[in-house]
Amino acid sequence: MIYLAEAIKLKSILRTQLHDLENELTRVAFVSKTKAEPFPEQPRTMKDVEQDLAQVRFDSRKLDALIYRANIDHTIEFEGETLPIVEAIERATQLRAEANTCKELATSETEEPMYGYGTESAPIYRIALFDPEEYRQKALLLEKKAHALSNKINAKNYQIELDFNGEAYFL
Predict the structure, then answer these.
(1) pLDDT band at 80 (very low <50, low <70, confident <90, very high)
(2) Model confidence, pTM
C-alpha cells in the first residue's frame, strides 16, 4: 500500500526509469568489435532490459489506473461544494489562470496615450473600463483560494491509500 501522494511522485520516477531503460536498450543492442574479436561480456542483455521495461510499463499502467480511480472516487470540500479530486485539481488550475489574468489587468494604466494613432490635436487614448486596483485585490484573493484548494488536495493525497506495492521503487 502506498499513499496517493507517493503514487503521484512514483509516476515521475517511473517515467524517468522508462526513459533510462529505453536508452539502455539502445546501448546494449549493439557492440563495436572486429570480426576476429569475441563478443564482449555485457552485464545486462537486451532480454534483461526488455523484461525490466515490461515490468515498469505494467506498473506504470496499473499506477495510472489507481490514481485515476482515486481522483474520481475521493472528494474535497471547497467553497460549499463537494468536488472529486480530479475536478478540484482542475478548479485550482483555473483559479491560478484567472489570478494571472487579473494580475495582468492590475498592471494596466487607467488611461494612456496610444502613440502612432490619432493626431497631435486629437490623440487617441487607451482607457481602462475597470479599476486596476480592484483586479490586483481580486488576483490576491484568487491566489489564496488556489493555494487553499491545493493544500486540501495535498492533505487528501496523504489520506488515500492505493493497493500498489512500491517496494521495487521505494526503500
Answers:
(1) very high
(2) 0.81
